[in-house]
Specification:
Elements: E1 4-9, H1 16-20, E2 25-26, H2 33-41, E3 47-52, E4 59-72, E5 96-111, H3 112-117, E6 135-138, H4 140-149
Parallel strand pairs: 1-3
Antiparallel strand pairs: 1-6, 2-5, 3-4, 4-5
This protein binds a DNA duplex (12 and 12 nucleotides) through loops.
DNA sequence: GCCAACGTTGGC
DNA sequence: GCCAACGTTGGC
């Protein structure tokens, strides 16, 4: 049985459509320890709700699937990358990525305002004030509630 | 563009 | 190990 997660992205940088356009994507650039630790807990087959931030309105837009468990984020070693971390070494990497693949676009996106009203989400870090975590766990109830709001069915393999 | 929330850094 | 300063996130 999969676990459920939510990951944020700024669609101007990398959108769900960008994810759909390729077979898989490296979820690079996470530079928050708590978010990183959640990624390290992910397993192949886990389902990830993709959330667009910094747009009007912010909200959930699609479902992705973890296709490769956590490994060191290559961008931390690349001085040319905006995600470069001079304190990271090959022996002691700081940051991790997972690979994800688009699974299904929501029939309609679900705005943050709607998510805040969903009882199943009331305990989620997503809707708490001042939440800045870009990777966070979702309960199965929360995940299913969002799919219901979006009137989206997803095949459970 | 503003600003509240919150994570990180670094002096002590 | 504390905490002030600073930087970033992200909704509005």
């Amino acid at each position: 049985m999969p676990n459920y997660w939510l990951m944020k992205t700024e669609p101007d940088e990398f959108s769900f459509a960008d994810l759909e356009a390729r077979a898989r994507a490296v979820w690079e650039g996470v530079r928050n320890y708590q978010a990183r630790n959640f990624m390290r807990e992910m397993a192949v087959g886990d389902l990830v709700l993709i959330y667009h931030s910094q747009v009007k309105p912010p909200g959930a837009v699609g479902v992705a699937e973890v296709v490769e468990e956590a490994y060191p984020d290559p961008t931390q070693f690349d001085p040319e990358s905006s995600y470069y971390d001079p304190k990271a070494t090959a022996e002691e990497p700081r940051w991790s990525v997972v690979d994800v693949a688009a699974r299904q676009r929501l029939t309609r996106s679900v705005s943050l305002a709607e998510l805040k009203q969903a009882p199943a989400l009331s305990d989620s870090r997503l809707v708490r004030q001042g939440n800045r975590l870009s990777v966070l766990p979702l309960s199965e109830d929360a995940f299913r509630a969002i799919l219901t709001i979006a009137e989206t069915d997803i095949d459970v393999a």
